């Protein structure tokens, strides 16, 4: 018998009959009817050129000629089990994610319970901050950044969305600005143009900015997806920031990494 001519989908029937000792028991194991099991065994017999099973004392027993076929089926089953275990291992385990604090608190954390419920076995470590973690050195697995990477050109990068800004807070309120360390940011430059040199309150990140607006300390600009609950924009703003998802190219092959990356991309579309 040429193995390449055999229908490999018949092998589960062979294993099931060997274990159950009957077509009916095998059918119950496989979730099919007895006729289907009998047809698959008959097809194997035709390929083998000899009976696969013989009925002895009311039980179907493997014929000697089919012993090599059973060994082949068991090895194939074991290989599939090992492969399935390897795939399952890539679904579970740790994933470290870095992003600016505003994205973690305003976008990721509110959606995380639902995501973890749908992906048991994942362990998400969140690393907030503006520092660029070195992905190629393993400081983090996935990064969300507001600019395309320049320091690590080998990372796998894709643009997953755009942060669109609006003005929040009363129109007559004073402007809340970023501090000097953030002066190079596009949103900080726009605010500086609007507010002039003085501002009663300065902050260092969007999360603090949102809290300051909510506290009634003034007005400023925020990404619309990070605006405080129930707060509506008071004026438009031309500022936008691209959101980039970065990952070590080797980690991109792991299913758990792809699951987190796809989830983050979907969040940006909401």
TrEMBL record:
It holds the Pfam family HTH_1. Residues 6-63 form the HTH lysR-type domain. Keywords: DNA-binding, Transcription, Transcription regulation. It comes from the Bacteria. GO terms for molecular function: DNA binding; DNA-binding transcription factor activity. Gene3D superfamilies: Periplasmic binding protein-like II, Winged helix-like DNA-binding domain superfamily/Winged helix DNA-binding domain. PANTHER family: TRANSCRIPTIONAL REGULATOR, TRANSCRIPTIONAL REGULATORY PROTEIN. This is DNA-binding transcriptional LysR family regulator. It comes from Rubricella aquisinus. The lineage of its organism: Bacteria, Pseudomonadati, Pseudomonadota, Alphaproteobacteria, Rhodobacterales.
């Amino acid at each position: 018998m040429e193995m390449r001519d055999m229908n490999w989908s018949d092998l589960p029937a062979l294993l099931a009959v060997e274990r159950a000792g009957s077509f009916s028991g095998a059918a119950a194991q496989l979730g099919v009817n007895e006729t289907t099991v009998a047809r698959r065994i008959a097809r194997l017999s035709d390929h083998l050129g000899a009976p696969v099973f013989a009925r002895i004392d009311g039980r179907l027993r493997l014929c000697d000629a089919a012993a090599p076929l059973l060994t082949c089926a068991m090895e194939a089953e074991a290989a599939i089990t090992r492969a399935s275990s390897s795939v399952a291992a890539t679904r579970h385990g740790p994933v470290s994610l870095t992003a600016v604090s505003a994205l973690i608190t305003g976008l990721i954390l509110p959606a995380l319970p639902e995501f973890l419920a749908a992906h048991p076995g994942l362990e998400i470590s969140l690393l907030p901050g503006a520092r660029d973690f070195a992905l190629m050195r393993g400081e983090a697995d996935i990064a969300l950044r507001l600019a395309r990477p320049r320091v690590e050109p080998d990372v796998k990068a894709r643009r997953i969305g755009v942060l669109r800004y609006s003005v929040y807070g009363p129109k007559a309120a004073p402007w809340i600005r970023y501090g000097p360390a953030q002066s190079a940011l596009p949103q900080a430059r726009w605010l500086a143009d609007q507010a002039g040199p003085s501002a009663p309150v300065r902050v260092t990140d969007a999360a603090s900015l949102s809290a300051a607006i909510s506290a009634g300390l003034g007005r400023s600009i925020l990404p619309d997806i990070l605006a405080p609950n129930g707060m509506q924009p008071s004026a438009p703003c031309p500022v936008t920031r691209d959101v980039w998802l970065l990952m070590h190219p080797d980690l991109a092959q792991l299913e758990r990494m792809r699951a987190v990356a796809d989830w983050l991309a979907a969040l940006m579309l909401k």
